[in-house]
Amino acid sequence: MTEDLFAALRCEPEIASPDLVAVDAADRLILDEAGPLLSGTAPGSVAVVGDRYGALTLGAVRRHGLRDVRVHTDRLTGESALLANAARLDGAGPADPEDTVPGRFRVRGLDAELMTGARAVLLRLPRSLDALDEIAALIARHASPEVAVVAGGREKHLTRAMNEVLGRSFTEVRASRGRQKSRVLHASGVRGVPAPGPEWPRRVTHPELGLTVCAHGAAFAGTKVDIGTRFLVEHLDAALPEARTAVDLGCGTGILAATLASRRPELSVLATDESWAAVESAWATVAANGLDDRVRVRRALGTAGIEEASVDLVVLNPPFHVGAAVEDRVAPELFAAAARVLRPGGELWSVWNSGLGYRPRLQGIVGPTRQIARNSKFTVTASVRR
Ligand SMILES: C[S@@+](CC[C@H](N)C(=O)[O-])C[C@H]1O[C@@H](n2cnc3c(N)ncnc32)[C@H](O)[C@@H]1O
Predict the structure, then answer these.
(1) What is the gyration radius of the CA atoms in the chain, in angstroms?
(2) 184 and 239 housed in the same domain
(3) Of 62, 108, 172, 277, which has the fewest Cβ atoms less than 10 A away?
(4) Ligand 1 in contact with 319 (CB < 6 A)?
């Protein structure tokens, strides 16, 4: 009966691509390995983290009749797909992304309430070890001491270091047998005393930028400053000096937004990202630098929620990965999102790996594009909205 559900799951609003599937062998293995833990559990005792499009949450609910499962998905795309799949499969129409589905599951941030009292956690292993460390520490601190974690992924994405990271929070970590190139790590036995180390979000001061950067585990580049970001920061003072409104699109930890706000007091800045970790990190960065009255931060897909033709300046360091896949459609999607909100004459300032040759696309999607700077790796361009 879960197979019917799996067959009906969709990845939307993810950008369609031939190798994108809504449920894969790792999801199936996690559900099978967790089966004995899930049958007969009390309402509110299961948490799901990192579900890609709803297969884990909806599969577990359908198979075991669970109630009040708490769910956290970093990417808004995944969260929206989960809610849309849940609504469609119930025939209830599209779900409000801010809403929850009462009774069966609730969408939450990566916070104490997600884990409080949980006895079973289904986890799709994140690629980043820092993200895994933050999740494991949260489980260890807030879940039931008897909690069992079933953490799985595709074998090509698993590393030995993941066992070590889980071992910082749990006394027992063992791997399942592989199946269809997927594997599960079972973790249990919460360590009474958490492993020493800084708390999340972590914070590091970068004196050369005059900024303190805060980062949750899943945020791009963590508390470091990516070299592409750094290159764009070097040129931001020259970006449309008459601008009064700016958007940091795909803000990550908020370095571009905080730089703009601290150097240009006349600018009103909005930072947006689809990642929960990014948005929470950007909030923390903005607050740590005393800029919370100057920068708004919002979790959104692209420029959703921003009025068309209303913005003077957009700054963007686009991703070239979606999850594990190198995906060259994401950046053009974001160029189009920027073009939609820029007023005529407004500018998109972007940094990109020179090998990606984005200039013709920027030219076509946004408008006339000039090179501002280029080094051995990156190009900074300014594109004027027609
Ligand atoms: C390369 S990182 C840059 C982060 C930050 N601007 C910096 O320079 O450090 C790209 C960011 O875009 C975000 N992102 C990717 N696709 C997005 C989308 N469709 N809508 C909003 N944000 C997106 C990612 O979550 C990630 O934080």
Answers:
(1) 21
(2) no
(3) 172
(4) yes
Amino acid (1-letter code) at residue 264 = R
Q: At residue 227, does pLDDT exceed 60?
A: yes
Q: Are 169 and 139 spatial neighbours (Cβ–Cβ below 8 Å)? A: yes
Question: Which position has the token pair 């700016």?
Answer: 246
pLDDT at position 246 over 90 = yes
Cβ pair 353, 231 in contact under 8 A: no
- The pTM for the full model equals 0.95
The residue nearest atom 24 of ligand 1, judged by CA position, is 250
**Is 324's pLDDT higher than 50?**
no
Whether 251 lines ligand 1, by a CB cut-off of 6 Å, is: yes
Residue 102, judged by CB atoms within 10 A of its CB (0-12, 13-18, 19+), counts as exposed
pLDDT tens per residue, range 45-102: 999 999 999 999 999 999 999 999 999 999 999 999 999 999 988 755 555 555 555 5
Q: What is the separation of C-alpha 295 from the centre of its chain, rounded to a whole number of angstroms? A: 20
Nearest CA, atom 23, ligand 1 = 250
With a 6 Å cutoff on the Cβ, whether 285 touches ligand 1 is: no
For residue 242, how far is the Cα from the chain centroid? 33
Instruction: Identify whether residues 244 and 332 lie together within a single domain.
Output: yes
Minimal-distance CA residue to ligand 1 atom 6: 251
How many domains would you assign to the chain? 2
Span of 39-43, 89-93, 148-152 with lowest mean pLDDT: 89-93
In a domain, 91, yes or no: yes
Scored b (16 or more CB within 10 A) or e, 124-153 reads: bbbebebbbbbbbbbbbebbeeebbbbbbb
* CB distance 126 to 220 below 8 Å: no
User: Which residues form the domain of 313?
Assistant: 202-384
Q: How far is CA 325 from CA 63, 116, 157, 329, in A?
A: 30, 33, 11, 11
What CATH code is carried by the domain that includes residue 182? 3.40.50.150
Q: Is 250 in the pocket of ligand 1 (CB under 6 A)?
A: yes
- Residue 107 phi, psi (nearest 5): -90, 135
Q: Which atom of ligand 1 is nearest to the CA of 232?
A: 8
Q: What are phi and psi of 58, to 5 degrees?
A: -70, -35
